[in-house]
């Protein structure tokens, strides 16, 4: 019997009364492994209103107690790390190694949430005027919500609800309907950590349920990660309904390869960062920009990429797993065909990839293009597959100009032995996250995830100090006390009982 995914509402895992269910499939086989509900309006309302009710209690729980919940939660996540990774692999197709990394990066954010007290400190100035002091208080917003994608079903929800809840808010999570199982396990462990019932609610569904969250007056802040069109929709709809919104969108991440770079390091890092996780990550390197004579390395890059084979989650030799769906696979194949038709040289074509024992999986082999120009579809669109495109320029200045003219600004990197070249690059590039001899510069959670331009809509980013500010508001108090009001005399005696 197919597993029916429950809702998590008012502190209870409950069966949905909906008549609309979405099939959840294993990407390695396309077999149905579960069905997820599209929550009814009544169920959505119940979740949001209960979160609002619980907020009145939770915001008054001492910050140290909220931190202890996160300490317990991170302990439970570590204890069940491998189990969560196996569940995650089943619904995403990720290899075991990749799935474990997904879980671990989420745990790191929970560890940061356990440090919430120091991030909730306000500021004080004594005697801003005669006998007048001014100080600020950091206070939670209310009910916040998160809408998360399929590609990181542990890490991205853990970017959101632990920090929001640790800061004193309650949270409604709407995970991707393609990968709901990991989120439910995260909720089970959160409940075991001792969180007050109702501080976390989980609802399921598609656009209709997302719109309900975006339009509901009790939702104060919206966090989203996903594609560009949906991020734009989330941002415009959420802000039109007077909500605070952070919407992380698409990317076209470039790695600049200088001719003085270490060739072996360049090729090794390009292979892993381009096809790892089947290229289904917003920080994947999907464009290599070879400067000057570095273009001579493209042939060797093709040779090494050809050695990488996709496979099932438990195949220790697999470099990565399948794409999330047949639809996603066909979209990438169409882009590969467009690249060939538009004149790019396909050095390696993984369109006909198959994996023994898994004939129905969404497999794509590593694919490499050279001779790519900026007017081609494979350069302009985020492919979100194991495809790397190569461009060639003569100078670092040309590379910087090329990248700054691209609409996205999520991540980039430069490989070079020159400190001067690296400094020029980090200073002039219009991208939020820069790696120097590091292929995927995702910051640890005491910093924030800082994509720029078309890769982000909003003002305050995920995790780190910016996330705490996103989920809180500052209240400034100016106080004056008069000396004449200080009590004196025998009535000041302290009565001990």
TrEMBL record:
Q: Which residues form a coiled coil?
A: none
UniProt record, GO biological process: L-valine catabolic process; thymine catabolic process
Entry EC number(s): 1.2.1.27
InterPro entries in the cross-refs = Ald_DH/histidinol_DH, Ald_DH_C, Ald_DH_CS_CYS, Ald_DH_N, Aldehyde_DH_dom, MeMal-semiAld_DH
Query: Domain Aldehyde dehydrogenase: where?
Result: 16-477
State the top-level EC class: oxidoreductase
Question: Keywords for this entry?
Answer: NAD, Oxidoreductase
For this chain, one GO molecular function annotation is: methylmalonate-semialdehyde dehydrogenase (acylating, NAD) activity
Task: Extract the PROSITE patterns matched here.
Answer: ALDEHYDE_DEHYDR_CYS
One matching Pfam family, short form? Aldedh
Q: Which family does it belong to?
A: Belongs to the aldehyde dehydrogenase family.
State the name under which the record lists this protein.
methylmalonate-semialdehyde dehydrogenase (CoA acylating)
Q: Which species is the source of this protein? A: Vibrio galatheae
